[in-house]
Structures are given as structure tokens and as C-alpha cells.
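Entry 14. Structure prediction run on the chain below.
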Amino acid sequence: MKTLKSIILGLTLVSAISSVSFAQSNPCGGKNMKSMGDHGGMVFTIEDPMGRNTVTFKSTAPLEDIVGTSNQISGQLVFDPNNPDAGGHGEFVVPVKTLNTGIPLRDEHLAGADWLNADKNPNIEFRITEVKNVKEVKSTKDAKTFEVTAIGDFSLNGKTKRISVPARITYLKENKMTEQKMPGDLLAARTTFEVALADFGITGPKGMNLIGSKVGEKVEIDLSLIASSAGGAMAGNPCGGKAQMTKAAGNPCGGKAAMNPCGGKKPQNPCNPCGGKM
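Output returned:
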């Protein structure tokens, strides 16, 4: 009987500690969400069921111009419009197989092993770790616009490169007009930058020398999106926004282990079901 009481007391204590952990930071110990909590800014979720958020890439070469788009962008942004000098951070994720160039066969080749190898590297990601050079360029009662420099790790084709890109972000306080777009305070973000295919090991089919003739050596990327403080479906995902990209029911972080919501094999922290450090 004493042993049973000890177990119940222990479980109660673990539950209490876990609740505190969930409230304070990321219960899964992920770098993304934990740093969001540490930052203290507003968290804006990138999720628009109507597909109005868009990423566009353009390749310009002597023999062919290629333009592709995707409206399947997920992720989060953290920024405090009332304390912009504190900077911010966030993450964008675009599944490779959602890129559409207007020609199905070309899309299939683009996602194939000779190009972006979507089966091995399913996502294009930009993890912003720092926002600096913040300059307010416009301010009204319900809106503020800033020009910033976003610095972070851009991942493509299984390779990651540190990049720095100019961006413009606009904070919109919730009102009757913004509610027609989506609920919550909004953060609109726009940026255009270039990436060199060679930096990410993209060469095309061996021996065909398509880079520079039919495919540009550099690709221009244009990103336009609006994120909401209301969160949407992803707000219920304690692991940083990847749940919607998996079919693993019962696991909000997309891992295979049903008992561990973050997919880890050996939870390191009994008070944290995702095994992260507290």
C-alpha cells in the first residue's frame, strides 16, 4: 500500500512539473519553440488553409526560364512589434513535392534524385536565428512596418548554408478588416534573395551540363506570407509545427514512436515526454 501511494505521489509530482514545463517553454525541448519562449516576443503561426501564402522561385538561363511556386508554407515567426530592437527568429518549411512549375513532368524531374531529391530531403527550410538592422519605416495606429535583415540557416538538397537576406515585415493589430483575412494580430513578411545551386550540391543529371545553359546557376526566391498570432491548427502542436506534415496519428511531432510525442527512442527527461532538456 505504501508503494502504491509513493507511485501515485510521484506521478502527481511529475504531472505538475510537466505542466510548468509546457507553460514556460517547449515541452518537447526543440530549439525552435524553446528559443521562442526565451525571446519573449509574439509568436505568429504560418498557416493559411486558403493557400494565399506563396513562395516563388525563378531560374533564368540562355535556353530556358523556369518559374515555380508553392503555397504550402508552414512554420512560425517570433517578433515583438513594441520592442523591435530585440530582434526575432523563426522557421519556414516548404515541401519539395509541392513545387509547381506548370509542367508535371518537369516537376517530377525537379523532385527526383538528380535535382532536389525529395525522397531523401523532403523539405526546403529556412531557420532564422537572428533579426538585426531593424528600421521602422512606417507607423499608424494599427500597423507598423519594418525593414530588417534576417540571418539564418537555409537548407536545400540535404545541405545547409548560412545566409543573410533583406526583408520587410508589417505588424497589423487585429481589427474588423484584418479579421476578414484571418483571426488574431497579423505579421506580413516579404523577402527576395538568391541562392547558388552549387552551394547545395545541385548539378543536374551527370554529364548533361544543364546548369548554366537550361538552368540558372543561381535561383531567385521570393517569399510572401502572412502569419497570425491566433495560431490555427498548429497552435496545438507543442513540437514546433511539423505535425501537419505527417500521417503519424497520435504523435504531434511526426515521429514514429507512439509513446513519445517527439519520436525519440529514449526520453532523457521523465518530466518531459519529448526527452528535451529542461
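DSSP finds four helices and ten strands in the chain.
Filed with the rest of this week's runs.
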